[in-house]
Amino acid sequence: MKPAQTRQKIPAPASWAELPWGEYYRAAIEQQLQPWWPKIFGFHLLKIGQLSAEIASESCAVSHQVNVGDKGSNMQVLASPYQLPFAEKSVDACLLSHTLAYSTDPHRILREADRVLINDGWLVISTFNPLSLLGVGKLLPVIRRRQPYASRMFTQMRLLDWLSLLNYEVMHESSFHVLPWHKQGGRFISTHLHALGCISLIVARKRTIPLTFNPMKMGSRKPWLSRTVGATKSYRNRP
Question: pTM higher than 0.70, yes or no?
Fold first, then answer.
């Protein structure tokens, strides 16, 4: 497995229109997010990156939505995604729409998003799926340097592993838009072969308690309980 961090900088497109079939990808992501936006509440939503800024989120219950990026005319805050100028636990939701696909250090971006998110905050991630027709294109020397094949592609399992280490609960995961050059992405094929979709989407929430049961922690309480019970018994048996 290739390391997540790389020295090779991949220039991110300024908009979805700069990507071949980019408007199709944007429309597909917006359609998948429609059921989730009304469920995300809070005061502040960060849309990190130029592609995130173009994702329609009018139906989101968060009214204050801020576009953040190191460049772009539609940015309200000009800042690096690696160093967000916001206090810890001050943001209710973060959108990373293909932000990781054009990052040199995706781990750092995830940690920075985690830093500014409140407890139980929402993290929405979309990226290209390497186990798709786009992933096959990365294997072809003729086109792998072109967009969108030149972007970084991470498997959904790898993304889920990163989120697990940060203690996130995955609320939704899906792959869709199997045929990248079709407006609907091949609706019939996507219904039956959705795992081969060229776009992956993950909706997760930041948790503060362990998501897995740890019997060691529960076992550590047993001596304390036994001593208490024993002390009570000995007290009652005193003459």
Answer: yes
**At 205, which helix (H) or strand (E)?**
strand 199-206
Q: DSSP for 130-144? A: SSSHHHHHTT-TTTT
Q: Give 220's DSSP letter.
A: T
Q: Cα 26–31–37 angle (5° rounding)? A: 105
Q: With beta carbons less than 8 A apart as the criterion, state whether 80 and 110 touch.
A: no
pLDDT tens track, the chain, 239 positions: 566 777 778 888 999 999 999 999 999 999 999 999 999 999 999 999 999 999 999 999 998 999 999 998 899 999 999 999 999 999 999 999 999 999 999 999 999 999 999 999 999 999 999 999 999 988 888 888 899 999 999 999 999 999 999 999 999 999 999 998 888 887 778 777 888 999 999 999 999 876 555 555 444 444 433 333 344 343 344 44
Q: List C-alpha distances in Å: 29 to 142, 174, 202, 218.
A: 28, 11, 11, 43
Rounded Cα–Cα distance for residues 178 and 211 (Å): 32
Instruction: Walk across the sheet containing 44-48 and list its strands.
Output: 77-78, 64-69, 44-48, 91-97, 117-128, 199-206, 168-176
Strands 117-128 and 91-97: what pairing?
A: parallel
Interacting residues of 206 by C-beta distance below 8 A, sequence separation 6+:
114, 117, 118, 119, 120, 121, 122, 123, 166, 167, 168
